[in-house]
Amino acid sequence: MSSSRLGGFALTIPIISVAVGSMGYAAWRIDWPALVQSFLTGPGRTSRILLLFFIIFNWKTLPLAWTYRIFYAMLYHMVFRNAPRLGPRALFKPMITETKAPLLEIDYNLHKSNSTYFADLDISRTHLCAYLLRPAIRNMSNNQKTRLVRDPRTREPVKGNFAIALGSVMCSFKREISAYQSYELWSRIAAWDRKWVYIVTYFMPKGAARPTEWLDPRFGRVRTRDHKDATGGWEKKIHATAMSKYVFKVGRFTVHPAIVLADAGLLPPRPGGWQSGENYLGDESVDLSDVDLAAADGEWDWRRVEAQRREGMKLAAKFHALDELHDTFDGGNHGALARFGPG
User: Fold this and answer.
1) Nearest CA to 58 among 110, 119, 100, 116?
2) How far apart are the first and last CA of the chain?
3) CATH, domain range 68-226+234-267
4) Residue 214: exposed, middle, or buried by beta-carbon count in 10 A (0-12, 13-18, 19+)?
5) Where are the membrane-spanning stretches (predicted)?
6) Which of 80, 96, 321, 337 is 20 to 30 A off residue 228, Cα-Cα?
7) Distance (Å, rounded) from C-alpha 319 to C-alpha 172?
């Protein structure tokens, strides 16, 4: 999600339902055989057919296509599909989304324009959050009844719509993506602190990497690769890597990420809780050096989850430090070059 208000989104569901129903009724009333015959014959048919093919192969970049992709991801996971509760083992696992680079995303170097990567990131993050955090999103969208998020001063439920806001995003480009090349985005939660959830995304050629297993039982029949083939050469094929940070809000109140993750069933019980300690991140003085994060098996207890969170924070801390760039702007006190348009 780029910056989404789920409370407002919930209110639009009836409107969307009416619109879809109306379009369905209109489509049912259309004389399709006559329409198709008229489209494929008569004056201007070549132009119409070429235009249709152009739209089909470039729909991703058409007006409102980004909005459709966002709402599709939200509706699919929040309304139409019941994502299973997978527990703490799923917390750091990636969500894979597939797409292509249409012609209108190609720049003068004949590969995918760098600016278009960020639209793909919006879609990938939306799939990840709507899938993993669905129970918590629903509860916080109805916070007055669920009382999940409470004001620490009054202990009353916080009022307002639930929102997920994008704080910042960074993308590092490695290898170009050619026109109409298929590729995948692997997005996963890397870490969280008292305010932000950090998400890492990898742009990969389609099929270059395959998971050794699927946690969602509905993917049980999808072929996975042999555990002995642990690399497959994908390390040299990564197109780009990105890191984003999200903040959860109910009204103007910032929700601790641990509340969201715990309500989604992704955090195991922890002595003292996940919001204790000086930094509201639990007891950070606990020695976790004996935890083997590379182990394929094993229980995802609080020690392993916390060890993985600390590992992710090593990257997140460097990413978070980029916020200091705001302080380097001088407001024009040392002059400028010129001003031109259009931009």
Assistant:
1) 100
2) 26
3) 3.10.129.10
4) middle
5) 6-28, 49-68
6) 96
7) 12
Instruction: Tell me the average pLDDT across 242-257.
Output: 96
- Assign 3-state DSSP to the chain and report helix, strand, coil percentages, each to 5: 40, 20, 40
> Helix (H, G, I), strand (E, B), or coil: what is residue 101?
coil
Length of the chain: 343
Rounded to whole angstroms, how far apart are CA atoms 90 and 219? 14
Structure tokens, 81 = 């599909």
Lookup: tokens for 152: 């620490």
Q: Which residues have CB under 8 Å from 224's CB, separation 6+? A: 210, 211, 212, 213, 214
**Phi-psi domain of 162 (left: phi exceeds 0; alpha: psi -120 through 50; beta: other):** beta
Instruction: For the chain, give every domain's residue range.
Output: 68-226+234-267
Do residues 197 and 167 lie in contact, with contact meaning Cβ atoms separated by under 8 Å? no
Question: What count of Cα atoms within 13 Å lies in the side-chain half-sphere of residue 131?
Answer: 22
Q: For 180-200, how does the pLDDT look when each residue is reduced to its tens digit (9 = 90+)?
A: 999 999 999 999 999 999 999
Question: Residues near 9 by Cβ (< 8 Å), separated by ≥ 6?
Answer: 74
Q: What is the pTM of this model?
A: 0.87
DSSP 5-68: EHHHHHHHHHHHHHHHHHHHHHHHHS-HHHHHHHHHSSTTHHHHHHHHHHHHHTGGGSTTHHHH
241 Cβ neighbours under 8 A, 6+ residues apart: 171, 172, 174, 200, 201, 202, 203
Q: pLDDT tens digit string along 112-165? A: 999 999 999 999 999 999 999 999 999 999 999 999 999 999 999 999 999 999
**Chain centroid, CA 13 distance in Å:** 20
C-alpha dist (Å) from residue 35 to 38, 41, 47, 53: 5, 10, 16, 17
Spatial neighbors of 170 by CB under 8 A, at least 6 apart, are 242, 243, 244, 319, 322
pLDDT digits (tens, 9 = 90+) for 115-126: 999 999 999 999
Q: Which residues of 30-45 are buried (b: 16+ CB within 10 A; e: fewer)?
A: eeeeeeeeeeeeeeee
Alpha carbons 106 and 101: distance in angstroms, whole number: 7
